[in-house]
Amino acid sequence: MNGVVDGAAFLLPQWPHAFGAPTLRGIARHTPADFQVREILGFDPDGRGEHLLLEVEKIDLTTPAAQQLLARAYGVHPREVAYSGLKDRRAITTQWFSLRVGMHRTATETVALPEGLRVLQAHKNSRKLRRGSHKGNRFTLVLRELEGDLDTLPPRLQQVAENGVPNYFGPQRFGHDGGNLQALQTWWAGGREPGRALRSLLLSSGRSFLFNAVLAERVAQGNWNQLLTGERLNLDSTARHFAAAAASDAELQQRLLQGDVHPTGPLYGRGESGVEEQAAALEQRVLAEHPALCAGLLREGLEHDRRALRCLVRQLHHELDGTTLCLEFELTRGAYATAVLRELVTTLEEPELETRS
User: What average pLDDT score do residues 304-324 get?
Assistant: First the structure.
């Protein structure tokens, strides 16, 4: 397939599945209650300072929309309202926001919030939230009107629980019908330069596409969860990565099996990738298929980073009632629930513009 800026038309690929295409089909997001997310903060508020840390439930609202509404309700500028991660719109989601309200305001004060927003708990904290500061997310998903052989579900769930799933960026990252990528192509072809927020989203979509392309090749080769020579590894549940001493290293192999480390793929940009030998050769071959996209990302000044190729699916539970399936699981931050769903069921749903855990 041509790269997003290398061809006249754009079609989002069907990235390969780790365990073969699922045989079940079902309806996702029939209602917002069918997609529930609870953000796992990962630290305790310290109870002091000028920031108000709120755990907020939102229904059918984007995170930026909730940010604006909270700013208005608490009488602060929107830039004084921070959050750790973006959450789905068509869903019931619980996430944390920090508001810089000053030392005088207490956590016990209440304010009137519009429909769709509810504060579950409030604490004072000495620091604002930073992007990516949460630990992960807990999902509760309902899939309805399942069709296909239901006997294939238990073994597929076991495969996912034991092996994790390819850590693809979900279709939400690319916009409806790949619209973000098409907008990136239009911009680079001489269109109007987007504003700061949209620019960031479009560039992220571009290098997410390249990451998925590299991951797809490794899934096709069956080594997305194995060590290649010259690999760079991610330390589980962190943004840290390091060079593997050798693909045959017994200790690293054991850590890989235990889920302590994961192979990584490129978040393309300037600087050294840190991979060598087999890993580097594979990445270079895939990236060479998208020269204009690579050149554009370098021109925009993005710095190279790494992302885990594998995502572990923790605390996976399911309940099947006739043709309705309820799933519960936890993912580390930055991973997509759609990456899990696509290994289990072919879903019919309308993707959000941008969803990120």
Answer: 97
Supply 56's token pair. 């907020």
Of the candidates 63, 130, 132, 62, the residue with the CA atom closest to the CA atom of residue 98? 130
- Average of pLDDT values for 291-317? 97
Domain boundaries 43-133, CATH class: alpha beta
C-alpha distances in angstroms, 71 versus 82, 107, 108, 231? 10, 16, 17, 45
Q: Whole-angstrom Cα distance, residue 125 to residue 100?
A: 9
User: Tens digits of per-residue pLDDT, 331-350?
Assistant: 999 999 999 999 999 998 64
Kindly report the pTM of this predicted structure. Answer: 0.90
Tokens of 287: 């990236």
Q: What is the mean pLDDT of the chain?
A: 92
How far apart are alpha carbons 85 and 62 in whole angstroms? 11
Sorted by where each begins, the domain ranges of the chain are: 43-133, 163-311
88 is catalytic: yes
| Contact (CB, 8 A) for 124 and 49 | yes
Q: Which CATH superfamily is domain 163-311 in?
A: TruD, insertion domain (3.30.2340.10)
pLDDT of residue 164: 98
Nearest 5°: the CA angle 357, 39, 310 is 40
Q: What count of other Cβ atoms lies within 10 Å of the Cβ of residue 301?
A: 9
Among residues 88, 236, 249, 305, which one is catalytic? 88
CB 211 within 8 A of CB 335: no
